[in-house]
């Protein structure tokens, strides 16, 4: 099973996680009364990959799309008229980027045309010893040199405007031999001009570069079997995930890979149940339950982010978009109010956003994915059994995850949860922070209790209808009278509609007796109705087994929300309609297809309802297995120490003091993991050996240049 014989089956995957901290000791502006307004551009070689709104405390995480040599950070300042000026840059070679995985202050350097030269050049250099002399028609003893530029790629204009002001090649005549090589271009050295001594300031950075060599799937089978082999009632301390969690300080890194592997193999609910049960049993005080960053809490965090992304977007994304677009003032700290702002008006704006987002969350129980409900149900049951005298633990154990670790962080950082492509401006960021804090505090109020009961109920965990009645949508709509001619006066009346998980009902107003009710089993679909039917806009038809109900919304937003809520209710209806008529039956025929039979089958396919998804992207299970292997390999010495501890316990423990079977099974698990990790690393070493042997310096994949692996043979060549 040697990987070296199949290099094509091994792929390289790279990621960069960057924390841009802050800048200090920057040069003052020419106008001292104005402070700097800085932002930062991140580039791979000369390709911009990220641009911050401000400098301080920005996180960048992305997959590296191609091979690169230099990671650069350009610091810019925007003046009052919008002109950008570069203040300096920090450039880190790929060879040494691993040295900056902790916060490090790096000096800014000048940005000049010659320092920005990068790219690759493919040269053919030939020397001819005897060349015929054109004038004397005889051979000359003077050697001749032929230089041909075959290709130039990834070049950057050295005069700063994208063009090349001096496109020529200058080759010193000494030590010339015939070669065809590729060469990395680097900054030009100007020996006549001494380097500037001016201090431009510093930039605090943290860069984590991960490079995984992912093998074909069969190479990970032994380690995968050791990870996935969990059983009911198994002690979590014998699981590979828990063992690695003891070795690695960053529990989030461990949880991320294990949750994805278990999700890929549809065992994530069982995995989370084991780690959560262990966490609850180890907790003495219910007030501290799930408060730390343990393997259990990080696993649930990663699971919610992975399984609930579609649910999250469907619930609050439209409101987050509105906050970005409106840019309303919501500051309620008197010390931070700007001139002209009103504290009372800001408070009204903030309350409006908080109330709408909180209502959207508490009305979304029916949309919560079943797999998430299963996890919440297990959490509630385990916490209740551990603390039977605490009446609130059944709610706080679930709300701590749903509100504090899911919705609130998503509101605080929409880009991290893929709800926005850009970071918010400072004002919007402050608004999101205030809303996020409010949502955290509202997680335990009475109005959220019903929502928490539903998403953690046994029926929702089994994908069955919920016994409790929960309001999904309510509001005033115009209802068209049924059984009348469309010409009758006052065919449309205002009614207060309430949509729940049990059905749709309506009354004259919110306080009046219900006039009509349609059970969920009779809601077969909800579609827009063409304006030509009754010469009215914003019409919605609710499809029932024997008839249609026509309602009219007040605006396009309400129309969309009602259609979406109705479709969500009927998506699990086994008798859901497959076709419908987009126009009404008027004058003895359907206006859409002209069919005369009133009970005829629809002429248009029903709109497909997007099902809640567990993932928003496919899981690369082999890559996650490689990450797990890499983590075990990095902490192999600690694993050996843990192995020695288990061996000592097995030899010395007695049944009265500790469980000998636990240490025995724990030692067996460690031995299996260690064996698989070392075996897989032998394959990696063989692959690196073959790759190094086949690498040809000067080729397109490995140009000559000033790197640690490739010496700079042509430092004096000038382009």
UniProtKB/TrEMBL annotation:
<dbReference type="InterPro" id="IPR001562">
    <property type="entry name" value="Znf_Btk_motif"/>
</dbReference>
<dbReference type="Pfam" id="PF00616">
    <property type="entry name" value="RasGAP"/>
</dbReference>
<dbReference type="InterPro" id="IPR008936">
    <property type="entry name" value="Rho_GTPase_activation_prot"/>
</dbReference>
<keyword id="KW-0479">Metal-binding</keyword>
<dbReference type="Pfam" id="PF00168">
    <property type="entry name" value="C2"/>
</dbReference>
<dbReference type="InterPro" id="IPR039360">
    <property type="entry name" value="Ras_GTPase"/>
</dbReference>
<protein>
    <submittedName>
        <fullName>Ras GTPase-activating protein 3</fullName>
    </submittedName>
</protein>
<dbReference type="InterPro" id="IPR035892">
    <property type="entry name" value="C2_domain_sf"/>
</dbReference>
<dbReference type="InterPro" id="IPR011993">
    <property type="entry name" value="PH-like_dom_sf"/>
</dbReference>
<dbReference type="GO" id="GO:0008270">
    <property type="term" value="F:zinc ion binding"/>
</dbReference>
<keyword id="KW-0677">Repeat</keyword>
<dbReference type="Pfam" id="PF00779">
    <property type="entry name" value="BTK"/>
</dbReference>
<keyword id="KW-0863">Zinc-finger</keyword>
<feature type="domain" description="Ras-GAP">
    <location>
        <begin position="250"/>
        <end position="444"/>
    </location>
</feature>
<keyword id="KW-0862">Zinc</keyword>
<dbReference type="Pfam" id="PF00169">
    <property type="entry name" value="PH"/>
</dbReference>
<dbReference type="GO" id="GO:0035556">
    <property type="term" value="P:intracellular signal transduction"/>
</dbReference>
<feature type="domain" description="PH">
    <location>
        <begin position="470"/>
        <end position="571"/>
    </location>
</feature>
<dbReference type="GO" id="GO:0005096">
    <property type="term" value="F:GTPase activator activity"/>
</dbReference>
<dbReference type="InterPro" id="IPR023152">
    <property type="entry name" value="RasGAP_CS"/>
</dbReference>
<dbReference type="InterPro" id="IPR001936">
    <property type="entry name" value="RasGAP_dom"/>
</dbReference>
<keyword id="KW-0343">GTPase activation</keyword>
<dbReference type="InterPro" id="IPR000008">
    <property type="entry name" value="C2_dom"/>
</dbReference>
<dbReference type="InterPro" id="IPR001849">
    <property type="entry name" value="PH_domain"/>
</dbReference>
